[in-house]
Amino acid sequence: MSTMRRVVTRVVCALAIVLMGEQVAAQDILIRNARVHTMTSAGTLDGADVLVRAGKIVAVGSNLAASNATVIDAAHRPLTPGLFAGVGSLGVVEVAAVPDTSDESFRLRMPVWEQQWRPEFDVTLAYNPASSLIPVNRIEGMTWGVLAPYRGDSIVAGQGGAVTYDGRYDALIPGSRSLFVQWHDGDSVGGTRAGLFMLMQQAIREVRSPPAAADRALMLPAGREAFAGYLNGGRIVFNVDRAVDIRRLIDFTRRNGLKPVISGGAEAWRVADELARANIPVLLNPLDNLPDNFDMMGARLDNATLLHRAGVRVAFSSGHVHNARKNRQVAGNTVAHGLPWEVALAAITATPAEIFGVGATRGHIAVGQAADLVLWSGDPLELSSLAEQVWIGGAAIEMRSRQSDLRDRYFQRLKSARP
Amino acid sequence: MRVNENIRYAVSGAALALLTSWVASVGLAAESAGTDSYGSIYRASVSPPTLIRNATLLIGDGTRIDNGDVLIVDGKIAAVGRGLSAPAGARILEARGRWVTPGLIDVHSHVGVLPSPYVDANSDGNEVTNPVTANVWVEHSVWTQDPAFQTALEGGITTLQILPGSANLVGGRSVVLKNVPAVSVRDMKFPGAPIGVKMACGENPKRVYGDKGTAPSTRMGNVAGFRQAFSDAQDYQRQLQKYQRELAKYQAAEAAPADSRKKKADDDKGKEEPPAPPKRDLKLETLVSVLNGEARVHIHCYRADDMSNMLALADEFGFKIAAFHHGVEAYKIADRLAERGVCGALWADWWGFKMEAYDGIQENLALVDYPQDSCAITHSDSSEGIQRLNQESAKSMAHARALGLSIPPERAIRWLTSNAAKALGLSDRIGTLATGMNADVVIWNRDPFSVYSLAEQVFIDGSMQFDRSQPQAPARSDFMLGQDANEELR
B456, CA 20 to 30 Å: which among A22, A219, A319, B304? Predict the structure, then answer.
């Protein structure tokens, strides 16, 4: 009987898949008459159409036609690529102060002299597509972000990568895997940032000539294997703020053939020309303008502007997880402080996609890109605008979250209580 | 300063809190409540008369005037309207295309007590040694060199209430500051501002003390802690009242005709000693100021049920709550808050960082604003957020619009001006552009609720404290002066 039921279930599932396949084909989407911010060399196209088929953008142009397509009249409203939610723990934390709901750090809490680097730790294996945070941020236009491990025992937090917020379980976007390093973390480098270089050199040496099993090593064999990939051109995101530390890091990575991304970068503007020459991009929170610590004495609101003028690629990350949607407001603020509007929008679309190796499928409105799109009620960087419809991988997402449900329940009660 | 402000200052400085009315009246201020040693010594800068012309004025009372003028004379708003003429020698600021608002007020700030840089040595916001530290005054922790005062000013903040942290049930007294350069907190203290007391319900006190293995460790422990503290304060209040009665009797006797006194003195061995006042208890003194209505009560509270419990506490002990701060679930009891005349000082969209913040919604400000006689306030609790209270408000306005609620700029500006002034008990001096009010004024380069908007000039009591056209001005904070981080790395 149970076998029978299983067979029936399988058949039903198979049918469902077939039906869904047909639905996808039937549900081509034609968004007409939009102000399309392509984030490509084509720039902004007013009154343009975008055709989506099987989850991808198949045409961008004027007067496109498609039979069987769901047609949406954008009425000249702005259409952007899905926005970048920043780098952080979105998808691995539910309530920050409830430890059981947090999977952001790998920490064995060993005494310092027992600590090992664990670059093989991969936080994306904890990603929870059912997190309530995802719909909350998704309906504000955030369609993807970089899931990064938070600080671990050592300066090497572990690996992360870009994830799509369409609710799928295997959400990691290929090509985006990165290693995250906290460049200066007090005790774990012996209490001095000079220790960073010593430990880094030791790690490089261990990879190049693995120690004997009995030797005391910084990494386990699996760690050495993971780390080796990052010594050979993999992306390493270094969290560092102080200008002089960034300069030394540039030197170090050049000598050792590493491919760095600077994250934090509160004082990056002070070494903007060097960053531009080394083609090192910077992920920053442009609202950082206070010396929260002595590494941020030069923090200022036009950091992104100065970096851009020097030719450095900038992307934004608000530092918020639950409120990752704030990245849009963050971008708007940089315009008030001198960044060209298109560059600010690129800093939450195309630029982070390119930095994290997913530029071929994310961050642009162009043929071949995943159909991650947002139709806005107005200027996408303006606070008075809201996302009217979000598509991820060509699917119109339900514009609903736990928060909108709470809002509807209580607004209804308030309205009915009103005389 | 207006004359009545000087009087307020003198009284509050002399008698402080508790004993103000009756002690002052019986002439024992110096003995019972100290001198005005902690009072404000703020003096407004002298400024020329100023006429701001042809701007969009958001008055702060819910109205606006397009192409309006504001005239400032002697640190006060002298006139608001159209086609005003400037007195001789006035500075005239042509503000066509600009927007003008009252100076912004943040009712929830820790600038100066949880400062930048955030180092233990300067972290003085939470006296985490007892769940009831009503005896501490946060002004004694304020580091006036915190660079966050300046960045807040650049965001249009002219007045801020600095609060102790939320680790304790009663964290201590708050202080209201004018955002001016100062070497001591007294130079910033808002003259005559009512006392404020910070309380906290919910997770923080029970976590902080529960983790130490002491009470409170639960929400019921929190409420019991409040009730016992106020019960102790009632007892202290009775002792003070008893002393007051005895003192009055003694003074009446002293004031009796001289011959009968002399006779009495001859009869008795010595003359009767005046009654001894109860020993001052700084903790209970602050709590009595809550009971007698002198202190404004500001309660950090997230959940709707916690707020309801605090309303019940206020009923039991007969005090009034000025505002719930953070109030992430205030939208669930918006009508009750409005009925009770309690303000909700709120974030636009922070949520989820702890359990009691899990039900946050972006419409909270708008829904708390929705009932009749409501009092929604945009607050920051953050040295970043305080720089853009206008933007925080704008987010809630946008989400309200999606619900079909139109909240125009002239209404929303109340959240960060007049409603905030109301919670601080300063509505008669700040928060609106009206004749006779302090000339705390911000000129914005466009609609302040735009993400692209910047404050161009900020006036406090008529004095221009910030001018964006002078970006090379030296750092206001001594800490930032001469730091080698203002140019490219050599």
Answer: A319
pLDDT tens digits for B233-282?
Answer: 999 999 999 999 999 999 999 998 766 655 555 555 556 899 999 999 99
Its domain, for residue B400, covers 103-429
**Look-up: residue for tokens 């009987």?**
A1
Q: Has the ipTM of the complex gone over 0.90?
A: yes
Residue A419: pLDDT band by 50, 70, 90 thresholds? confident
A 88-107: CB under 8 A from B: 94-98
Chain B: nearest CA to A292, how far in angstroms?
Answer: 4
Region for residue A259 given its phi and psi (left: phi exceeds 0; alpha: psi -120 to 50; beta: otherwise): beta
Asked if B436 has any chain A CB less than 8 Å from its own CB, the reply is no
CB B210 within 8 A of CB B190: no
Distance CA B194, CA B12 (A): 8
The answer to whether the beta carbons of residues B411 and B62 sit under 8 Å apart is yes
* pLDDT tens readout for residues A128-170: 999 999 999 999 999 999 999 998 889 999 999 999 999 999 9
Range of the domain at A313: 79-396
Would you tell me which residues 314-333 of chain A have a C-beta closer than 8 angstroms to some C-beta of chain B? 322-323, 325-326, 329, 332-333
Determine, yes or no, domain membership for A258. yes
Which residue on chain B is closest to A401 by alpha carbon?
B361
Domain count, chain A: 1
Interchain CB distance below 8 Å, B361 and A270: no
Contact indicator for B240, B287 with CB cutoff of 8 Å: no
CATH code of the domain in which A284 resides: 3.20.20.140
The CATH number given to whatever domain includes residue B267 is 3.20.20.140
Euclidean distance between CA atoms A278 and A64, whole angstroms:
42
A 23-62 → B contacts, CB under 8 A: none
Which DSSP state fits A265? -
Q: Chain A interface, mutation test: which of B206, B303, B336, B353, most A Cβ atoms within 10 Å?
A: B353
